[in-house]
Amino acid sequence: MSEILKVENLNVSFKTADGLVHAVDDLSFSLTTGETLAIVGESGSGKSVTASAIMGLLNAGNVEINGNIEVNKTKILTSKDSEIRSIRGKDVAMVFQDPLSALNPYYTVGDQIGEAFLTHHPKASKEEVAQKVLEVMKKVGIPEVEKRINSYPHEFSGGMRQRVVIAIALINDPKILIADEPTTALDVTVQAQILDLMRDLQKQSNTAIILITHDLGVVAEMVDRVLVMYAGRAVEVAKVDSIFESPNHPYTKGLLSAVRSLDTEVHAKLETIPGTPPSLLNIPQGCSFNPRCGFKKWVGKKCETHKPELHQIGSNLSACHLSEQDIKRMNNEEIPVA
Amino acid sequence: MARFIVRRLAFMIVLLFVVSITTFLLFSVLPVDPASLSCGQHCTPEKIEANRIRLGYDQPILTQYFTYMKGIFFGRTYGEGAQAFSCPAPSLGYSFYRGQCVTSMIANALPATISLTIGAAVIWLLMGIGLGVVSAVKKGKTLDRISTAFAIFGLSMPTFFVGLLLIYIFIIWLPIFPFPSYVSVFEDPVSWYQTMFLPWLTVAIVSAALYTRLTRDGMLETMSEDYVRLAISKGLSRKKVLFKYVLRGAITPIVTIAGLDIAVLLGGAIITESVFGLPGMGRLAFNSVSDSDLPVIAGITLITAFIVVVANAIVDILYAVLDPRVRLEA
Fold first, then answer.
1. Nearest to A94 among B225, B233, B328 (CB)
2. What's the start-to-end Cα distance of chain B, in Å?
3. Which of B75, B210, B265, B296 could form a disulfide with B117 if both were Cys (CB 3.0 to 4.6 A apart)?
4. DSSP strands (E only) in chain A
C-alpha cells in the first residue's frame, strides 16, 4: 500500500470581476494504491476544482494556486508542462460527468480510445493500437467491438458512451482514476452497471479511485474513505463505516439525514440543511458552516471567530469546535433548527 | 453517404429547374420590350411587330420557356435568312445589341472572375482563419486586440475605397505592381499574377474579417466543451488539442459561409472588377444593365443562380463529410 497521491495545503482561487473566489481552502489528503476515496459535498464546495488541480488543468491566467500536489512523486504544481502531459492520461486519468459531451462528435470511438494510448506510446504500430483498443473496449463491456470500433459517439447510448470514456481512461492502466460524478447523467439502471464496472476493473488492476459525487448511496456501496468538503474546505475525513455510523461534523450529519434509506418511515419528512451554501466570494468568518449550523449554540461565539482545523475525534478527522461529548449527544438527537 | 450525395444532387436538379422558371418569368414581366430594343434606328411600329414575331416574343410564355430551355440543351438559331445567327448548346440567348451569343460572352467573362474568386478565397481563408486562431489562443492579449482591430477595419471599409487605397499605395506611391491589365493565366502567368494580386487583396481584406470573428468565437466556444477537456486530460499536446479538436469543432460554419461567399463572388464582383478594370462577370452584368441588354442579363442571372445552387449542394455534401452526425439524418 504505497502512497500514490499527496495533496498538501492546496489553495485555489479564481480572480473574477466580482473579486477573488476561494474555491479550495487549505485542503490536504492522500491516497494509496487500490484505495477508493469519495469526495462529497454540495455544488460549489470545490470538489471538481480539486480534481482539475490534480490533473494539472488549472493553468488559466485568472487562477491562483498554492500548495503541493504529488502524483506518483511528480509535483504537479511546479513541473514543466511536458512532464505533466506525460502523466496525464497515463498515471492519472479522468472520467467526466456527462458522457454525451465528453466525446468528440467528429471522430470514431476507436480513434479516440486509440489516441489516448498512442500519445503515451508514440512508437506503437497501427496494429498494436487497434489490438489494445479492442482489448480495452471488451474489458469495459462494449459488445461487438470489431464493429463498434468504427462507430461515432452519436451512434452509442449514454451508458455505452460512458463505457467508452472509461475505456479511454483505462487504456494506459492509470494508477489513479478520478471519476467526476460519473453516473449523474445516466439512467438509474445504467448507473449501477457503470459502478459495477468500475469496481470490477479496480479489483483487476488495483487502481486508486477518487469518486466525486453527491450520491451517498454510491458512497456507501463503493468507497473505503470519505472526504466531506464544504465551501472549499475539508470538514470531515473518515472511513466510510464511521461516516455513516457516527459523523463528527454537523454538516456531515445534515447530509446523511437528507437521504432517505429503506429504514426511513414512509411518511417521515425528509430533513434538509437550512440555508444555502455560502458564496465563495464571501465566506463566513470562523467556521464557514456556522450560519447554517444547528449545534452552534453548544459551542458559542468561537464558531464565528475561529476557523476549526481538522483534528482527530474518535475514529474520524473533523474540523468542528464540538467536543467529543457534544458529538455523541449530536448523534443521539434530532437536528435543532438554527 | 453515397445515398445522401445522390439525393442531394437530385434535389439540386429539381431546384435548378425551379430557378430557371422563376428567372424566365421574372424577365417576361419586366416593362422592357426586347422587340423594340433590337429594332435599331428608323424604327416603325411595323418593324417592331415583325421583330416580335422573328424573336418569338409573340408566342405564349410557356412556349417561349420551352424554346429557351431547348436552346440550353440543343443550341438555337436566332433570326432567319442572311441575318440568321446560330448559337451552339448551351445557348442562353443572343444579344442583338452586341451581335454575340450570350453563352460566349459569359464564357469570355468567367476566367477573370474565377481568377479573382479563387485567388481571393485562398488569401481570405488563410488570413481570416489564421488571425482567428491567433485571436482565440491569445484571447484578451495584444495580438487578439490587433486582429480584432483589423477585422473591424476590414468590415467597415467599402470595397471601392480599399481597392483605390491599394492602387494608390502599391501602384502609384510604391510602384511594386504595374497598372492592371488582365491577361489569361495561360498566356502570361507573371502579368496575370501582377494584375490579380491587388484585386485579390481587396476582396480578401473586406471578406476576411467575418472569418476571423467566426474562427475566434467558434474556437473559444469549442474550448469550453467537455470533449476538449477530455482531450487535454488524455495528455495530448497543446498543438494537437488546438487543431484536431478545437479548430475542427469550429470549422463547420466557416465552410458553409465560405461556400456561399465564393458562389456569390463567382456571380461577379462588380465593384472590385470595375476598380481594377477586370473583364469579368460583374463588369459584364453592369454593362448589360446600362445597355438594357436583356438576354445577357437573363443569362447572367441564370448562371449566377446556377452557381449558388451548385455551391449550396457542395456545402451540404461537405457538411456530411465534416460532421458524421449529419449523415444519419439524410
1. B233
2. 8
3. B265
4. 3-16, 19-32, 36-40, 63-71, 74-75, 92-95, 176-180, 208-213, 225-230, 233-239, 311-313, 316-318
- Distance from C-alpha of B8 to C-alpha of B269, rounded to nearest angstrom: 28
pLDDT digits (tens, 9 = 90+) for B228-283: 999 999 999 989 999 999 999 899 889 989 998 999 898 888 999 989 989 999 99
CA A49/CA A63 separation, integer angstroms: 11
pTM: 0.81
- Is the confidence metric ipTM above 0.90 for this complex? no
Side-chain-side CA neighbours of residue B320 (13 Å): 17
How high is the pLDDT of residue A193?
Answer: 85
List the grid coordinates of A162: 460512458
The reply to whether omega before B90 is within 30° of 0 (cis) is yes
Q: What is the pLDDT of residue A156?
A: 92
Residue A301's pLDDT is what?
87
Contact B235 A98 (CB under 8 A): no
Alpha helices in B45-158 (DSSP H): 45-55, 61-74, 102-137, 142-156
Q: How far is B231 from chain A (nearest CA, A)?
A: 8
Residue B107 at interface with chain A, using a CB cutoff of 8 Å: no
| C-beta atoms surrounding B313 within 10 Å | 19
Radius of gyration of chain B from its Cα atoms, rounded to whole angstroms:
24
Please state the rounded mean pLDDT for residues B7-22: 89
Pairing of strands A208-213, A36-40: parallel
Distances (CA, A) of A283 to A22, A46, A280, A287: 8, 13, 5, 9
**Alpha-carbon gap, residue B226 to B103, rounded angstroms:** 54
Q: Which of A61, A85, A98 sits opposite B235 (nearest CB)?
A: A85
Give residue for cell 458552516: A289
Q: How many CB atoms lie within 10 A of CB A224?
A: 16
Give how far Cα A277 sits from Cα of A61, A229, B51, B225, B239, Å.
27, 11, 88, 27, 39
Mean pLDDT by 10 residues, chain A (338 residues): 89 90 91 93 88 87 89 88 90 90 93 94 93 92 91 91 92 92 84 86 89 87 92 92 90 85 74 84 88 86 89 90 87 64
Distance from CA of B302 to the nearest CA of A (A): 37
